[in-house]
Amino acid sequence: MKLQFYNTYSRQKEAFETLEEGVVRMYNCGPTVYGRVHIGNLRSFVFADVLRRSLEHFGYEVRQVMNITDVGHMVDDADEGEDKLVAQANKEGRDPWEISAGHAAQFLADLETLGFRPAMVYPKATDHIPEMLAMIEGLLESGHAYEVDGQVYFDVTSFERYGQLSGNRVEDLEGGARVEVRAEKRHHADFALWKSDPAHLMKWDSRFGPDGFPGWHIECSAMAAAHLGTQLDIHTGGEDNVFPHHECEIAQSEALSGKRFARFWMHAKFLQVDGGKMSKSLGNVYTIDDAVERGFEPRHLRFALLRGHYRQPLNFTWKVMEEARAFVENLDRLAQDLARLAAVDGAEGRGEALVETLRGDFDRAMADDLAMPRALAALSGLRQAVLDGELSGASAANGLEFLRAADGILGVVHFDDAGPGDDVEAQIAARNQARADKDWAESDRIRDELLAAGITLEDTPEGTIWRRG
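RE: above sequence
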């Protein structure tokens, strides 16, 4: 099936083609590890995982790299202000290396908790200083960068396509709007590749001086090139990464290599909370732990973050989490019902055609720029077909196969391949006998015992069926 994705660079959907047939080189902007990631951060990371799983669903080999920024990300996302790691270290009175290591480990643990497929590598900026310095030297030699007293800047006027991604033209950028105008800059929009500051707590010796550290933008260009080469198929991030971060990545990478840096740029919209922005003052900057403390499973949070289209705003509330839990648990029941029906002989007929139609609807939705709401509608259609008694035997088996394939993208369904177990089957049989003997007290006792063990029974005209949960 042919895929198409919206490309931020061209501002339109494009047919997806890769540099190497069957292989996707994908770079995802990861976290700056000065604090624990919150649900707003997690939306863009869940989007990246869904994209990776979708590509694999359609047969691609995905070489995924997600970086960890542990130095050089300034508090205003530009060149001035204080490094986020250093600011946090000063605030806590701790070593910035200790802070970054702890939050990086927590980030990877959070990804595992949410069921992410592991990336090929999670490179840290501080492990790639030599690669960054090599790129900077190349940009200096080619005339795209210049040095002033230990500071190295990229000359935006030397790259004519600067602004293509964000739509910001160099001549329209207002001095001081995002980047403080510094006298040593040739143009106020020039951005730092390497900075020098004796007071900085994380620094490296180089020919530019003993107190240097990298700018944020050069880090991703260097790490992407180190692990995926100078050209990518897809580069992702949150919408806040478009400018200046991704714009600057394009400029420095393409100025040095002379090649197109990424074929597709894909960005997830912000997550809103209670219809507005997250704020510490409002107490709504939530983490996975906050959801678990309220009785939700991590997979419920994962579903709440993936349920909408990635290019549309998504609102988070605790009511939404209740709805997410209900949808996921319905998918669990759907899996159990399909497994039960698959074991029952029945005619294929209309049910078989219906499953194939729904499977096609799901695949076409995901192939069309990850149209998740349409894809979820196909799964709702499968559940309705079961409720309407339209599936049995082979069609139910195919429905279960379809659900497994769909969950290869969603990553939220619990499949119970083992069945209820011999002891539970014996209890169900004993209860059925008690009902036949009109021993209602014994029947209720067994039902309550099973319920306490997490097994729910439902008596239907076709017999007693069970579900977990």
